[in-house]
Amino acid sequence: MELTLEHGLTATAVVAIAERVDAQEESMRSTADRLGNDNVRDIRPAVVVDAAGVLTAALHVWARGGRGHDSDAADLAARVKQATTL
After folding, report:
1. Model pTM?
2. How far are the Cα atoms of 7, 48, 59, 60 from residue 64, in angstroms, in the given order?
3. Sign of the alpha-carbon torsion through 58, 59, 61, 66
4. How far apart are CA 61 and CA 3, in angstroms?
5. How distant, in Å, are the alpha carbons of 18, 35, 39, 49, 61 from that of 72?
6. Residue range 30-65, pLDDT digits in tens
7. I need a labelling partner for 70 at 20 to 30 A (CA). Which of 12, 26, 39, 52 fits?
8. 3-state secondary structure of 4
9. Binning pLDDT at 50, 70 and 90, where does residue 77 land?
10. 3-class SS at 84?
């Protein structure tokens, strides 16, 4: 039986989220090193990592056939970005 936490997430989901955050942090540090800047004070490494995530999500949707939409990769990337913008 999976433990469900107070906010509705399972313990496994919380661990997966924490691992993803750690991986993103490592990607931001690596990107900052390559760009020669500080990932704590400079937002650009985080933007690069997040943009890569948007493109990856768009490619996953595109590979599955665009979820019934006749969309090209650029349109899908725009839709994914819009879906992730608050």
Report:
1. 0.55
2. 31, 25, 9, 6
3. positive
4. 31
5. 33, 30, 33, 22, 10
6. 989 988 988 788 888 888 888 888 778 777 777 777
7. 52
8. strand
9. confident
10. helix
